[in-house]
Amino acid sequence: MGQIAAFLYPALVLVSLLTATTLTFALAPIYVGALFGTALIIWQITGDGEATMFEGTALVAAYVILATVAAFET
Q1: Are 19 and 54 spatial neighbours (Cβ–Cβ below 8 Å)?
Q2: What span, in angstroms and rounded, lies between the C-alpha atoms of 33 and 29?
Q3: For residues 46 and 55, is the Cβ–Cβ distance under 8 A?
Q4: Angle made by CA atoms 45, 49, 54, in degrees to the nearest 5
């Protein structure tokens, strides 16, 4: 679902340039930081190409932390 939204939202912004109502692509700074932080965490954890129980737990913990921040941000 997230991959669809990651492609569809920018595509809709570009398509809206052809209509009377234009959409903007404005994100709160907390979400921009979350995107960069997520990319960094995943790169660090999965960079060696091996999967361990600890790495899986770290990825789940990162997801729970980001979900909690997003829940309290709205």
Answers
A1: no
A2: 6
A3: yes
A4: 45
Length of the chain: 74
CB under 8 Å, gap of 24 or more: what pairs does 8-15 form? none
Provide the 10 A C-beta neighbour count for residue 33: 12
Instruction: Estimate to the nearest angstrom the gap between the alpha carbon of 52 and the chain centroid.
Output: 23
Could you give the 3-state DSSP secondary structure of residue 23? coil
What is the C-alpha to C-alpha distance for residues 58 and 62, in angstroms, rounded to an integer?
6
pLDDT in single tens digits along all 74 residues of the chain: 567 777 888 888 888 889 888 877 777 888 888 888 888 988 888 888 888 999 999 989 988 998 898 888 76
